[in-house]
Design a protein that fits this description.
Elements: E1 6-10, H1 15-26, E2 30-35, H2 40-48, E3 53-57, H3 63-77, E4 82-85, H4 100-128, E5 131-136, H5 149-169, E6 174-181, H6 187-193, H7 200-206, H8 215-226, H9 228-231, E7 238-241, H10 252-258
Parallel strand pairs: 1-2, 1-4, 2-3, 4-5, 5-6, 6-7
Helix pairs in contact: 1-8, 3-4, 4-5
The structure holds nicotinamide-adenine-dinucleotide.
Nicotinamide-adenine-dinucleotide is lined by residues 10-11, 13-17, 35-37, 59-61, 86-89, 109, 113, 136, 138, 181, 183-184, 186-189.
């Protein structure tokens, strides 16, 4: 149990963020949830389950909001033990149809936001020379996937930020790692599939383990990287949580034939 340890999770109103906040709370962390959306419902559910949680709503890409978060953490906890940069948005469009505004919004939420959280809340960790930051990237941060130029570039950038801060802060007690999930069954996936972009079968056929990631699969990997007792010398990794997607260079018919065996 992680008593007396504080974690903050961005994008915690639903999906991977809410599942991660719930898992960390079950492990004994005090958890601060943040999201653009109201947090009353998840906060009430977590409190009813006996967990110590707080919530602040705002935009992670707004420097003033991140400064408000940092002031709250300084006043109540001194510094975080764990920061999970999970908030993110997708954008599925051919590159030639992506507007500068769409590109910039994705960069602001998926890359500027985590940078600001690291700068202000990681800065507090540095003063205590203790902490773990986990950035939620994607396999799209390690490979190209068509029709996702802004999203993929933002996640590649987030992995670059992870590498850089691991190098810059590792010697001062702050570890910085990333998880790289494959496709996860969340509201984001439902919204992305809606316009007929792809189907469940497209994803399951591509994954050696023949299924989507669950939010719990990703939350468990985040909790592992957060915990210095089990991952204390792991710094700067981009951990795939993808059922083997990145490892598999088989062509589709060969992969599907392996399932018949
Ligand atoms: N769903 C997938 O298939 C998948 C795959 C790989 C990586 N990811 C990444 O995992 C993370 C979580 O994704 P999810 O599937 O749970 O998505 P989701 O859309 O279900 O949840 C994302 C949450 O982030 C919040 N959010 C969005 N913009 C914000 C902002 N500017 N400030 C604060 N909060 C904001 C949303 O309100 C929402 O609650 C994202 O970074 C996403 O890119 C998702």
């Amino acid at each position: 149990m992680h008593l007396n340890r504080t974690a903050l999770v961005t994008g915690a109103a639903q999906g991977v963020g809410l599942t991660t906040a719930t898992l960390l709370a079950q492990q004994g962390y005090r958890v601060i949830l943040t999201d653009l959306q109201p947090l009353d419902t998840p906060l009430a559910a977590l409190r009813a389950a006996g967990h110590t949680v707080a919530g602040l709503s705002g935009d992670v890409s707004a420097e003033a909001f991140v400064q408000t978060l940092a002031a709250y953490v300084a006043e109540h906890h001194g510094a975080l033990d764990v920061l999970v940069n999970n908030a993110g948005i997708s954008c599925i469009l051919p590159a030639e149809d992506t507007t500068a505004e769409q590109w910039q919004r994705v960069m602001n939420v998926n890359l500027l936001g985590p940078f600001l959280l690291c700068k202000y809340l990681g800065g507090q960790m540095l003063q205590r020379r203790l902490g773990s930051i986990v950035n939620v990237a994607s396999i799209a941060g390690l490979r190209g996937v068509s029709h996702r130029s802004a999203y993929n570039a933002s996640k590649h950038g987030l992995i670059g930020l992870t590498h850089t801060l691991a190098a810059e802060w590792g010697g001062r007690g702050v570890r910085v790692n990333a998880v790289c999930p494959g496709w996860i069954k969340t509201e984001m996936d439902e919204a992305d599939q809606g316009p007929g972009n792809y189907s469940d079968a497209d994803i399951m056929n591509r994954v050696p383990m023949a299924r989507f990631a669950s939010p719990q699969d990703v939350a468990a990997a985040i909790a592992y990287l957060a915990d210095p007792t089990v991952s204390g010398f792991i710094n700067g990794v981009s951990l795939p949580v993808d059922g083997g997607w990145l490892a598999d260079a088989s062509w589709d018919t060969l992969r599907l034939r392996t399932r018949e065996a």
